[in-house]
Amino acid sequence: QGYEGLVEGGDNIKQANWLSVSNIIQLGGTVIGSARCKAFTTRAGRLRAARNLVEHGITNLCVIGGDGSLTGADIFRSEWAGLLEELVRDGQISEKVARKNCRLNIVGLVGSIDNDFCGTDMTIGTDSALHRIMEVVDAITTTAQSHQRTFVLEVMGRHCGYLALVSGLASGADWLFIPESPPEDGWEDLMCERLGE
């Protein structure tokens, strides 16, 4: 469950093996779970997470997420030595265990549907989000045609119009709104005229 699993520990931390990851590549979302974790935003929560990782001998993390997840990973990395010192001071781990786990390695991968990160062709999540949008468009297009109706489809992407733009192009949308290019005054009349044609 992401950072929630790190903080809670116990059965949330288990080794993946061939059987546990077989036949999941086609599944959407994340099969290992994900959760917003208020506790991890506090030092006390990160201290618990550090103890759980050290308990399992884990010193390498691969964090896939957005701004919050990657910011959390950077804070965790920067505090790691201090967290281990505190665990030793409180008698929760030995000095030997702290030395053995003294370095935390983190790889951060942008998991964003927005495809708004430079240096990569496509961020993790963009392709599956676009496929889901196109499935919906395909499903409602025949309904719109048979009823001679106009459908408005809102897609994800609060600050980034990539998904709206690409799915609009792919589906032949008549009108498109994206945050990067807000509509000009009088757009309502122009849109109605276009749809009327």
From TrEMBL:
A GO BP annotation: fructose 6-phosphate metabolic process
Location of the Phosphofructokinase domain: 1-184
Keywords per UniProt: Cytoplasm, Glycolysis, Kinase, Magnesium, Metal-binding, Transferase
Single GO MF annotation: AMP binding
Domain of life: Eukaryota
Reaction equations catalysed: beta-D-fructose 6-phosphate + ATP = beta-D-fructose 1,6-bisphosphate + ADP + H(+)
Protein's pathway: Carbohydrate degradation; glycolysis; D-glyceraldehyde 3-phosphate and glycerone phosphate from D-glucose: step 3/4
A GO cellular component annotation in the UniProt record: 6-phosphofructokinase complex
InterPro entries from the UniProt entry: ATP_PFK (IPR022953), Phosphofructokinase_dom (IPR000023), PKF_sf (IPR035966)
CC cofactor: Mg(2+)
Protein name: PFKAL protein
Organism phylogeny: Eukaryota, Metazoa, Chordata, Craniata, Vertebrata
Protein's gene: Pfkl_1
